[in-house]
Amino acid sequence: MIEAAGIRKSYGYGENKTEVLKGVDLQIKSGEFVVILGASGSGKSTLLNCLSGLERVDDGKIKYEDTDITAFSDKELTKFRKDNIGFIFQQYYLLPDMTVEKNVRMGADLAGNADYKEVIEAVGLSDKLKKYPSELSGGEQQRVAIARAIAKKPKYLFLDEPTGALDEKTGRQILDYICKLQIERGFTVVMVTHNGNIAETADKVIKMNSGEISEIYANLKRKTAYEIGW
Question: Taking the model in full, what pTM does it have?
Fold first, then answer.
């Protein structure tokens, strides 16, 4: 379980200080697929970054089970992310001078995972092993980023607008891959999006507005990526 209690985060100083998170409380169960939904500027990406340990909060606590990651040193926090967490962003962040296989293996090596080719197959890129990012479409590059994150065998996967830069067809494919892999492997997913339709694929939806949670609700039945509007 991930539990956040009273977390606050600001940027800037003095008159230019902006409070982005205003005392957020939430719980995410292990194995749950959670979507954080909100308009641009609502604080959803900052919340994702704080929950995942990419950014430190100004106040409050974030616990994974009984472990308070806000009490960690920088070195301890880096190790925690390495051992437990995977990230997928709207930007792919692939290394351009490395093939698909080597990009994915980079994530697998962090977990000592020798079965990384199974993950590449799971995202439908077995025929692209020796291709470089510049030789791939946007959707294929995003699938490489997904495979790299999954190959790390994370307990928790954080995604920030993973379909935001993709066309509808490719976006549905990517979302379908993520949902299927999450169900098969049972890891916890926390995804940020501004697309309310995508929220229908989640177990639970957390709505953000002006740095606060405005609503939390559960979907009675998760829809597939091909059942939702776009």
Answer: 0.90
